[in-house]
Amino acid sequence: MELKNKKLSLWEAVSMAVGVMIGASIFSIFGVGAKIAGRNLPETFILSGIYALLVAYSYTKLGAKIVSNAGPIAFIHKAIGDNIITGALSILLWMSYVISIALFAKGFAGYFLPLINAPINTFNIAITEIGIVAFFTALNFFGSKAVGRAEFFIVLVKLLILGLFIFAGLITIHPSYVIPDLAPSAVSGMIFASAIFFLSYMGFGVITNASEHIENPKKNVPRAIFISILIVMFVYVGVAISAIGNLPIDELIKASENALAVAAKPFLGNLGFLLISIGALFSISSAMNATIYGGANVAYSLAKDGELPEFFERKVWFKSTEGLYITSALGVLFALLFNMEGVASITSAVFMVIYLFVILSHYILIDEVGGRKEIVIFSFIVVLGVFLLLLYYQWITNRFVFYGIIATFIGVLIFEIIYRKVTKRTFSNNMYVKS
After folding, report:
1. Membrane topology for this entry?
2. pTM for the structure as a whole
């Protein structure tokens, strides 16, 4: 059998999702979470994980019946048909990858500059962010071999590094540091942080985007989604307990750009700082490469043409040559315009809107795909509530980010209305795999 026809096993699919999730947040926005949630950070990860499991319920039911690399857009298209909303959400899906690139760029700069003892200023941060995106854009332009096969080993390295961090940290933990803070302000901070940290689990969606290439998708897609979320939740909570249990929360907040590397110093010394920094750069780089090379490729095709071939190979580059450049350039723009918390909040908001429509699609198709209506309704209410909390938090803390979120949604909707009218594009049923 040729390699290109080889299906992903259950654990290869799990490793792919775990790799995206861990690369997206535990290194990049850990400091942001410490700033907002304080010592309630472990509970924040648990809360965010529960949100993700509620969304995953709809993903598993839909993904088992609707097999497509178009992922959530295929679900939404099946439920509400081809219209402006479906088109706008396809562009929003692409934008989620664009903003994720910005998140990775900011995370990379946060660990890279302290590692090389470079001054942390606006200029150096901007140059690093532009440089890392440009590097992976060039890498993908010239092509990349066996990215998928390497992902399993990349994830293994990340988990080993974080496993060492958790094990060593738990041995030297200060129990008083990890006692939850039940003051009203601390509890509200935990809830607000959980809304932002929702993005920590966003990677599970990559499983449905690759469902055509997974062995026995009707059985393995649901399993892979739930297993990957639970693994990542366990890792996140362990890392959070080890970090806040060894470093006073004030010091952790002060080191927000590379919080995990600084948190490793008390129990692993300078070697720990070096190891975590290198692990972070390795992890963020692999996540950025996967996002540019894989996810954004599929998402851009959907946003531009509204269709995918039945077997959209990961090795097929952007169907339109401008896709790579536009995706990367917009990623840099978001990185330069917003701080880490801003980028994280916009990313979470974008994903939550897509998730809301996925849950709505599940409700519409429930007789066809199965599931319990009360769970679907409860999931929709919870995710909607978390989305509104995120908007409220940004309204009271950072109006620029709030307006950035609103502008993203309005801009996407206006673009779709104009684009659809000019090009007459429609969504094709090619996004579904005929069984």
Report:
1. Multi-pass membrane protein
2. 0.84
